[in-house]
Amino acid sequence: MMLSRTYAIFLRQVYLFRSTPTRLAGVFIWMVIDIIQWGFISKYLGTMGQGTFGFLTCILGAIILWGFMARIQQGIMTSFLEDIWSQNFINFFASPLKIIEYLSGLVMTSIATAVTGIVTVVCIAGIAFGYDFFMIGLSLMPFIIILFIFGTAMGIFVSGMIFRLGPTAEWLGWPIPLVLSLFAGVYYPIATLPPALQVVSRLIPASYVFESLRDILIRGASFTDVMLFLLIGMGLAFLYLCAAYAFFIKIYRRNLESGAIARFSAES
Amino acid sequence: MDTEPILQIDTLTKVYDDVTAVDHISFSVRAGEIIGLLGPNGAGKTTTINMILGILHPTGGSIRIFGKDLATNRSTIGLQVNFAAVYAHMPLNLTVRQNLHIFGLLYEVKHLKKRIAELLTQFDLEQFADTKAGLLSSGELSRLSLAKAIINNPRLLLLDEPTASLDPSVSQHIRAAIKEYVDRTQTAVLWTSHNMQEIEAVCDHVYFLSHGSILLSGNPKTLASEYGKKDLEELFIAVAREPLTLKD
Predict the structure, then answer these.
(1) Residue A255 included in any domain
(2) pLDDT tens for residues A223-267?
């Protein structure tokens, strides 16, 4: 694997952001709107309770982390779509570029945009609602890593789907974070769901993150108490990442057979 | 001159469901040679080029480049191969310089800044260096495409209708630039075109494809008379309309 080629794919996206700064809006706007909206909702719900339950603590951290995961997934997908819209596939894939280098470049782009987004909303949450995102300190890192790996897996999977079905399949990619959030325990504990749906939740790595986060923030559990849960989440996230990569490679090989790479365009 | 072929194609075949796009074709290209691949639309020229580029898997046959099998050495071989095609767009939302920078990184070009400066001069693109590719004229875009195609000093260059849709003056300029480059570097070139005068002017040898097979081949300057035709264009029309009458 050549880092210079991965860097080339990343740099292409940097050039695009630099030449059209309006693209930056997409990096911040949804996360900022989410955090402001949920900040006010949490404040309002807080005034209705007995003052013993911290809605802000509970919800805002989850919203920020979920926004981070969604940005990772969508960052990969939109960078991939950019290459479709620009009809770059022939030039890219006829070069010595390997799939792992290409996907790493997309992931690097999504890290840059997601980190920019999360830093912005953490600042907004701190200034507007007095929320301290780092209240559990470095223990937050495993939560972020699991969500990053899972977001990457979802981004690669959706890109593979678009690669297989054509650019119009992007509409299957946008709602994925929303659909997953129903089962991932972002807004409510998984125990709230009917038992059958709880089984689905257990298959989603993010559910282990949010359940653990709630345990620490609300029930005062220690990091050691949730360690096993996080390990399961991490294992699942890795499994999905490997599966998503294998899926993308399979689609790429199929397209090499069918000639779809040469013919792939925004109209296909 | 190196006598080992740079590109060796043996019984190359591509079948899509029940359509045979390329049917057991064999030919080779040596260093410093410009080989023309001719034929009507749908004859299999672009399919052949796509297989040599590694973006389409052959159904059968083999492609050897620099003596190595393409199927198992694509990344290594790719460092010394490049192409320009009328249908392969450069990213239009990047500037000329940014495009060359990205592709220079992809092809692991050493001393990239210096190489980009050389190419901008060589293809008269200095004044457009910071212009987005989407704002260039067809001629300027073709020059950018060719600059990208030789950025890595390829030993094998594939040109799929490099002068299509260009006016005669720009076409001549581009042809001259490629000829000069090949003479200087001894690069092997596979060139497809529908412009028979162009083919006659630049190619050392041509292969006429019809329905995926090589129908005839030879020196572009003498081939037409060998088949009783006035010129290459008349021969091309015969290949397109009545290929069976040309079979030996």
Answers:
(1) yes
(2) 889 999 999 999 999 999 999 999 999 999 999 999 888 776 544
The fraction of chain B above a pLDDT of 90, given in percent, is 66
List, in sequence order, the alpha helices (H) in chain B. Answer: 45-53, 70-78, 96-106, 112-122, 138-149, 168-185, 196-202, 223-226, 232-241
Q: Count of CB contacts below 8 A, A vs B?
A: 89
Determine, yes or no, domain membership for A54.
Answer: yes
Report the run of H or E that residue A181 belongs to, with start and end: helix A176-183
Q: Which of A19, A88, A90 sits opposite B55 (nearest CB)?
A: A90
Contact B93 A19 (CB under 8 A): yes
- Per-residue model confidence as pLDDT tens digits over B128-166: 999 999 999 988 998 999 999 999 999 999 999 888 877
Domain containing residue A185:
3-263
Tell me the pTM.
Answer: 0.91
Task: Quickly count: other Cβ atoms within 10 Å of residue A138's Cβ.
Answer: 8
- CB contacts of A91 in chain B (<8 Å) are 88-91, 103, 148
Q: What was the ipTM of the complex prediction? A: 0.90
| Chain B residues whose beta carbon lies within 8 Å of the beta carbon of residue A7 | 105
Q: Is A45 helix (H, G, I), strand (E, B) or coil?
A: helix
For residue B206, what is the DSSP state? E
Q: Work out the minimum CA distance from A254 to partner chain B, whole angstroms.
A: 9
Average pLDDT over residues A136-149: 89
Kindly state whether residue A268 falls inside one of the protein's structural domains: no
- With H, G, I as helix, E, B as strand and everything else as coil, classify residue B7: strand
Q: What is the pLDDT of residues A61-97, one digit of tens each?
A: 889 999 999 999 999 999 999 888 888 888 999 999 9
B80 → chain A, closest CA residue: A96
User: Tell me, what's the pLDDT at A100?
Assistant: 96
CA B89 to chain centre: 15
| A167 domain-assigned | yes
* CB-based contact B159:B82 (threshold 8 Å): no
- Count Cβ atoms below 10 Å from residue B230 Cβ, excluding itself: 9
SS3 A268: coil
Tally of domains within chain A: 1
In chain A, the residue whose alpha carbon lies closest to the alpha carbon of B78 is A96
- Contact between chains at B56 and A91 (C-beta distance less than 8 A): no
